[in-house]
């Protein structure tokens, strides 16, 4: 894989070498390669010339902008970025001006803020992620959160694509003890992301916000093609740790703030339909081969080959149309003493006593998680990257599915395939969970997937489109459940 290229640009007399060094260290630590314009205040002509020199550097995937000290530099940079973005539309621009707070940036035009007004008019419409500190304090978390959202929405209306108010201090309760939380709030046209880190665990790196490490980390992760939600999580984890490396310790990762939690209630998050937490554990952490099929006939065929974990996934039918299939599926699951998960139809799964339910994260808005939990059904949750994994972890499902690893023909996916390197990262991070890898897993790929340590490999077409499905199941069982296959052979 080629190294991600990140440029950093700043123009300020006071910007010291330590800040530039912090950018370089961060980019290197997270696996990128950096090119820098970071010089004491230059004349306009010199600044433009420095930027022109950058164009001889390898093409940037992300540009991190730090302090830009004068209105003329802002205008020069805006022209430069506009032209560069036209040539390279995939480019992401991350801007962390450091000395400007969220409320100052969001304030209506005023005579004494010529620099801020120029930034708003010229630079923000080209910026993909704007990172600002929220300096307003206050003990009322809901009010602070609401003011933060309002300020962010004002800036979104100026044309910036996404805004992150970083490390807002909020007092919350954990295990009945008051604790100080650092909250990152990110909003763009599509989503609102809330991440919390206990302030007590913030490292000197986290607290040293004036160096702009957050934006360098974010730019470096985005340059490696991680989506913004995952990049925010990794950047915050990097700030929360002391190591100069890709974060791997879950204690350093932020928590995703959800409704129906102490902090969620405190911030006034709208309670989603019966979101519940802490589901019944599976009887094993290694669910083995996990065929996902769409008919009862297929369920029976895979059960006859010795499969012990499986899913009935029927799409786009009414509950009345699938009820008989679900009853028959549950009966088969019992007959073969297998773990039968029902996809989507959680109410029918409860009514007819399936082993478990599989849901996607959007289902949180519709499914009655409390009813699934109370009925004692296991819950499997789909995830597609760091952010969704951490969100699932807040819910503590019975297993976490990691998708889609490779391109799949079974389903249109809004996200990109994760690939093996990311799967390995997720498997290492979440090794205490039963993990299920899914998406485009052929027999040839299953060996590589299993080698990451995930305890289960879920497949559709590797079985349903195999020339010889019995042989395919035997091969996949040997890869995903080598010990049980050996045990059977020895019986
Ligand atoms: C094991 C497993 N992993 C992921 C999925 C996908 O579930 P979801 O995101 O809800 O999408 P649909 O399957 O409903 O299209 C799954 N079914 N099983
Ligand atoms: C149903 C499903 N969910 C996915 C996810 O990533 O959430 S991938 C997928 C389809 C898996 O089919 P195949 O093995 O044929 O690629
Ligand atoms: Mg679903």
Automatic annotation (TrEMBL):
<keyword id="KW-0479">Metal-binding</keyword>
<comment type="pathway">
    <text>Cofactor biosynthesis; thiamine diphosphate biosynthesis; thiamine phosphate from 4-amino-2-methyl-5-diphosphomethylpyrimidine and 4-methyl-5-(2-phosphoethyl)-thiazole: step 1/1.</text>
</comment>
<feature type="binding site">
    <location>
        <begin position="408"/>
        <end position="410"/>
    </location>
    <ligand>
        <name>2-[(2R,5Z)-2-carboxy-4-methylthiazol-5(2H)-ylidene]ethyl phosphate</name>
    </ligand>
</feature>
<feature type="domain" description="Thiamine phosphate synthase/TenI">
    <location>
        <begin position="294"/>
        <end position="463"/>
    </location>
</feature>
<dbReference type="Pfam" id="PF02581">
    <property type="entry name" value="TMP-TENI"/>
</dbReference>
<dbReference type="GO" id="GO:0009228">
    <property type="term" value="P:thiamine biosynthetic process"/>
</dbReference>
<protein>
    <recommendedName>
        <fullName>Thiamine-phosphate synthase</fullName>
        <ecNumber>2.5.1.3</ecNumber>
    </recommendedName>
</protein>
<feature type="binding site">
    <location>
        <position position="363"/>
    </location>
    <ligand>
        <name>Mg(2+)</name>
    </ligand>
</feature>
<keyword id="KW-0784">Thiamine biosynthesis</keyword>
<feature type="binding site">
    <location>
        <begin position="311"/>
        <end position="315"/>
    </location>
    <ligand>
        <name>4-amino-2-methyl-5-(diphosphooxymethyl)pyrimidine</name>
    </ligand>
</feature>
<dbReference type="InterPro" id="IPR013785">
    <property type="entry name" value="Aldolase_TIM"/>
</dbReference>
<dbReference type="GO" id="GO:0009229">
    <property type="term" value="P:thiamine diphosphate biosynthetic process"/>
</dbReference>
<dbReference type="GO" id="GO:0005737">
    <property type="term" value="C:cytoplasm"/>
</dbReference>
<feature type="binding site">
    <location>
        <position position="343"/>
    </location>
    <ligand>
        <name>4-amino-2-methyl-5-(diphosphooxymethyl)pyrimidine</name>
    </ligand>
</feature>
<dbReference type="InterPro" id="IPR022998">
    <property type="entry name" value="ThiamineP_synth_TenI"/>
</dbReference>
<feature type="domain" description="Pyridoxamine kinase/Phosphomethylpyrimidine kinase">
    <location>
        <begin position="47"/>
        <end position="243"/>
    </location>
</feature>
<comment type="function">
    <text>Condenses 4-methyl-5-(beta-hydroxyethyl)thiazole monophosphate (THZ-P) and 2-methyl-4-amino-5-hydroxymethyl pyrimidine pyrophosphate (HMP-PP) to form thiamine monophosphate (TMP).</text>
</comment>
<dbReference type="GO" id="GO:0000287">
    <property type="term" value="F:magnesium ion binding"/>
</dbReference>
<feature type="binding site">
    <location>
        <position position="344"/>
    </location>
    <ligand>
        <name>Mg(2+)</name>
    </ligand>
</feature>
<feature type="binding site">
    <location>
        <position position="440"/>
    </location>
    <ligand>
        <name>2-[(2R,5Z)-2-carboxy-4-methylthiazol-5(2H)-ylidene]ethyl phosphate</name>
    </ligand>
</feature>
<dbReference type="Pfam" id="PF08543">
    <property type="entry name" value="Phos_pyr_kin"/>
</dbReference>
<keyword id="KW-0460">Magnesium</keyword>
<feature type="binding site">
    <location>
        <position position="382"/>
    </location>
    <ligand>
        <name>4-amino-2-methyl-5-(diphosphooxymethyl)pyrimidine</name>
    </ligand>
</feature>
<feature type="binding site">
    <location>
        <position position="411"/>
    </location>
    <ligand>
        <name>4-amino-2-methyl-5-(diphosphooxymethyl)pyrimidine</name>
    </ligand>
</feature>
<dbReference type="GO" id="GO:0004789">
    <property type="term" value="F:thiamine-phosphate diphosphorylase activity"/>
</dbReference>
<dbReference type="InterPro" id="IPR013749">
    <property type="entry name" value="PM/HMP-P_kinase-1"/>
</dbReference>
<keyword id="KW-0808">Transferase</keyword>
<dbReference type="InterPro" id="IPR036206">
    <property type="entry name" value="ThiamineP_synth_sf"/>
</dbReference>
<comment type="similarity">
    <text>Belongs to the thiamine-phosphate synthase family.</text>
</comment>
<dbReference type="InterPro" id="IPR034291">
    <property type="entry name" value="TMP_synthase"/>
</dbReference>
<dbReference type="InterPro" id="IPR029056">
    <property type="entry name" value="Ribokinase-like"/>
</dbReference>
<feature type="binding site">
    <location>
        <begin position="460"/>
        <end position="461"/>
    </location>
    <ligand>
        <name>2-[(2R,5Z)-2-carboxy-4-methylthiazol-5(2H)-ylidene]ethyl phosphate</name>
    </ligand>
</feature>
